[in-house]
Each structure stands twice: as C-alpha cells, then as structure tokens.
Amino acid sequence: MGLGDIVMPGILVAATYHYAIINELPRLPVALGVIIGTLAGFIVLMTFVTKGKPQAGLPCLCGGAILGYIIS
C-alpha cells in the first residue's frame, strides 16, 4: 500500500467530520461509519492479497469508506 491509499480515506473521514455539522448530522457517528467502512474495505483487500491476487488498494478502501458513509 502506498501513501495515497492511506491519505484518501483519511480525507474522506475528515471531510465527513467537518461537513456533517453543516448538514445537521451527528459528527462522530458518521465519521466512525466511514472509518469502519474503510476497515471493511481493507479486510476485503487483504482477502484478495492472501489468495495471491494483488489488487489496487484505493478502490477497495474508498469504496468501503463510501459504503460506510451511506450506511451511517
């Protein structure tokens, strides 16, 4: 994993925490939902890697972060 694989989901977490107050959403649960979604994407990514099928990390991580945002 490269630096961008860490930074992009982190930016999504920071943006949801910052802009949730504008949309009158609870800040911490929404940000935690994005973090949990990112961790779920990381688990999916590591499942592919352990099977010997390396994948790009960013789609799994950001996809999980977006799903975490939608669910929360």
TrEMBL record:
<dbReference type="Pfam" id="PF06550">
    <property type="entry name" value="SPP"/>
</dbReference>
<keyword id="KW-0812">Transmembrane</keyword>
<dbReference type="InterPro" id="IPR010545">
    <property type="entry name" value="SPP"/>
</dbReference>
<protein>
    <recommendedName>
        <fullName>Prepilin type IV endopeptidase peptidase domain-containing protein</fullName>
    </recommendedName>
</protein>
<keyword id="KW-1133">Transmembrane helix</keyword>
<feature type="transmembrane region" description="Helical">
    <location>
        <begin position="6"/>
        <end position="22"/>
    </location>
</feature>
<feature type="transmembrane region" description="Helical">
    <location>
        <begin position="29"/>
        <end position="49"/>
    </location>
</feature>
<keyword id="KW-0472">Membrane</keyword>
